[in-house]
Amino acid sequence: MNADISATIAQRILVAGAGIAGTASATTLLSMNRDVTVYDARDCENLRTLEKQGARIIIGVNAPPNLLDDIDQLLVSPGFAPHHPIVTAAAIRGIDVYCEPELAWRLRTPEAASWLGITGTNGKTTTTTMLHAILTAAGLRSQALGNIGLPLVSVANGPWDVLAVELSSYQLHWSHTLAPQAGAIINLAPDHLDWHGSMESYVEAKTHIWRSGTAIVNLDDRAVIAAARHYQAHTNPDLDIIGFTLNPPDKGQFGLAEGWLIDANGERICPATDIRPSGLHNVANALAATALAYQVGATPRSAAEGLRAYRPEPHRNVTIAEYDGVRWVDDSKATNPHAAQASLESYDDVVWIAGGQLKGVDIAPLVKAVAPRLKSAILLGQDRGLVAEALREYAPRVPVAIVDSVEHSAMDEAVAAADAVASPGDTVLLAPSAASFDMYAGYAERGQAFAAALTRRKHR
Question: What are the TM regions of this chain, as residue ranges (predicted)?
Fold first, then answer.
């Protein structure tokens, strides 16, 4: 291990959270002969494995008061917000608090791959995997990592040329030196405010992705533009801004003109109709991915080849079936109003299945914006009542059905209600605008439940 690298990692480290990232981090630290303590509120198999590897294990909903005694650094999982008691206690003691991507960055060797970072409220995974496809088409050894795929700390020093790294606001908040070669913020809208405490704190965390000085910026998003200007004024006046837009681009920008994606040199890349999944928001994602790929030598040809070869991730505005002229679309990944609006605006005559945990975000602006497109709404989940209130105020003519159950069978009820009102030409769209953890393990399980309920309904 390089001495300079090793010096950034203290000897006595507490890893808070034994999920995928926490377990990978603890395993790496143990291999470096660090004294590792792992804390989690609940027992799990990962803890048993880490204990066999030499970690000290502490389990309990309420952490013991001496948990931070003899601890030099705290590595946290996303579930540990800044106001978590363990984190606030660490801050009082002056303990360095960081996360798994920051650990991976600190452990980079001189010959390690470059990082290209992607963040934003919505579309991160799509943009990251699009970027990976372009990099591969350009002949570069690439991996899509970070908030998706394998933990960064496990593979960041592998045989790669470039890493396409998705970074969440949580990860960026706890990153202090991480600085991708270029970083894209693809959009900004209220989300995770219960974790960050305010929109200002949420945006500030996102801007950490620009630490290297090269910013890929959505010129159509006022909040992103404002964030870039603020970063220039208060953090780095030399920030290099490379913009992308769904309008005809100026020189040095990436954009859309006459139905074609255009690069910063004014050259055509590919028709917008080649982009999958469909929708202008995914054209914007493709432009962001292309702008990032150009920073490491991609060309119009490799960008076009990569985008054409790209296959969408599941649960992201994907048509899963069509019965009797009714299209059924799974956008379970739409876990906030901003994401749901992007998919709702892709269709007319929508039977909307929505609801879940709103995470403190106001859904009224979304309902007001998409009301003309709604034929009916089927609501389920913890905050279904809040969605119903917004519909009563801003879309009073839209019929609403409420599923009161919060069991897994609720999705069967929702699909049955949607099937009863949908007619040829309609789109039944699962775009919950909310998190899924009130009823499911995650958005993927919710999307799978939607597809399974539809199959049962149509093949009974």
Answer: none
pLDDT tens digits for range 319-331: 889 898 899 999 9
Q: Is 132 found in the same domain as 80?
A: no
Give pLDDT tens digits for 410-446.
999 999 999 999 998 899 999 999 999 999 999 999 9
Residue 279 in this model has a pLDDT that exceeds 70? yes
What percent of the chain is predicted at pLDDT more than 90? 80
Tokens of 78: 């996303």
CA 343 to chain centre: 16
Mean pLDDT of all residues in 157-174 = 94
Backbone φ and ψ of 442, nearest 5°: 175, 180
Rounded alpha-carbon distances, angstroms, from residue 443 to 44, 67, 119, 356 = 22, 33, 19, 10
Q: Are both 94 and 108 inside the same structural domain?
A: no
151 and 39 assigned to the same domain: no
Annotated binding site for ATP: 120-126
Q: Which residues are annotated as a binding site?
A: 120-126
Pair 71, 116 in one domain = no
Residue 422: both structure tokens together: 């949908």
Residue 330: φ, ψ to 5°: -100, 110
Q: Are residues 329 and 368 in the same domain?
A: yes
Cα–Cα distance for residue pair 183/205, rounded to 1 Å? 13
Asked if residue 269 and residue 290 are part of one domain, the reply reads yes
Give me the half-sphere count of Cα atoms (radius 13 Å) on the Cβ side of residue 176.
8
For the cut 80, the answer to whether the pLDDT of residue 3 exceeds it is no
